[in-house]
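Why run this: before we spend reagent on co-expression, it is cheaper to look at a predicted model of the complex and decide which construct boundaries make sense. The entries below are exactly what would go into the expression plan.
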Amino acid sequence: MRLIKGMRLVAATHNPGKAREIEALLDGHYEVVTAGSLNLPEPDETEATFTGNALLKARHAADLSGEVALADDSGMSVAALDGAPGIFSARWAGPDKDFGFAMRKVEERLEEIGSDDRRAWFTSALAVAWPNGPAVVVEGRVDGLLTFPPRGDRGFGYDPIFIPDGQTQTFGELDPALKDSISHRALAFAKLKAALID
Amino acid sequence: MRLIKGMRLVAATHNPGKAREIEALLDGHYEVVTAGSLNLPEPDETEATFTGNALLKARHAADLSGEVALADDSGMSVAALDGAPGIFSARWAGPDKDFGFAMRKVEERLEEIGSDDRRAWFTSALAVAWPNGPAVVVEGRVDGLLTFPPRGDRGFGYDPIFIPDGQTQTFGELDPALKDSISHRALAFAKLKAALID
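The model came back. C-alpha cells follow.
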C-alpha cells in the first residue's frame, strides 16, 4: 500500500486553501483536489475521536469519488478539562469562528473549577482511504502549557494561549517555519509519509 | 508499511483460541501471541463503530507492548433496527454468552416494531497498529436476510438466523469451509493481506 508519486488525491474538505496546504505538506508530489470540487457532500462528524472523524471523512470521500482520499481532524485538549474542547475545538469558536471567544471560554472553565493545572496538547489526526479498501490513520501530538492572556497574532485557533514544551513563546508568537517543523500537524504528516511514501 | 513474514504479532485478545485462528487466517506466516500472555490489560471498548473499537484495541496493545498489534471487532446489524445490535452484538447475549437469548431478542424487537424488513449484515473490522506509529484498518461486510426460528448448529453467535445473499442456508447450516470463504471475516482478512503483505 503506497501513495504513488504523481497520483491524484481527494482532500475531504470544501476549502481550496486546505488542498494547497496538503499539497505543500506532501512536498508537491501529488495533485490534491477538494471533495467540494467533485461536488461530494460533507458528512456529519459523528465520531468521538480525532482519528474517528478523519477516518469517517476520508472513507466517505474515497467511496463516493472512487479515488484515494485524505482527511484530517485536529484540535486542542486541556488536561484539567478532561480533554475538552478536543474534537469540539472548532465548535467552541461558534459559527463566526471567534477563537478569542473560545480562548476566553477555556480560561473561564479553568477558573470555575479552580485548577492550576495548565497542561494541554494539540492533536492532528490524518486518514488516507482507498475506495472500498483499506485506510491508514496516524496521529501527531504536541504537549505544552496554557498561558493567559493570549500572546501573538501568528497562527490561528488556540495558538496564542499554547506554549509547546521546549519553547518560551506561544504558537501564536513562534516563527511560522519553526512552528511548522514542530507542530502536531508536521508530526502527523511525517508519520504518514514514512508509512505510505517510499 | 508491510507485515514482514516471520515477525511476531500481538493479538489484542486474552483468548488463545483467537490467536491460533488469526495465525491460520494469515496463512501461518506470523507468530501470533495474545495480549493476555504479555499481561497487557484489556481496554474498555468505548468507540461507536466496529473499526473504532478494533483500532482502539490494536493501538492500546501496540503502544503498551512495543510490537505490531492486530485487533478485530465484529457483529451483526439489522436494517429495521437501525443497525442494532451492531457493536453491542456480544453484549446482547449477556454475561453467559447466550446467543439463543440474543436471537430471540432480535426477533422480538422486529415483532414490536411490526417490520417485515429482514435485511441484515455482518461486519468484521480489523486494525493493525505499529507502536506509536501508523495503523491500518479494513472492514469486511456480508449482506443477507434474517430467518426465524434459528437453523443449524455450526458457526456461532447470530449465525443460525442469517442467510447470506446468494445462499439458501444460514451461516449456522453452511459447510464451514464455504462459510469461511465468503464470510465478513474472510473478506476483511483478504483486504488486510492485500494491503500489508506482498
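DSSP finds five helices and six strands in chain B. The longest strand of chain B covers residues 135-146. Bring this page to Monday's planning discussion.
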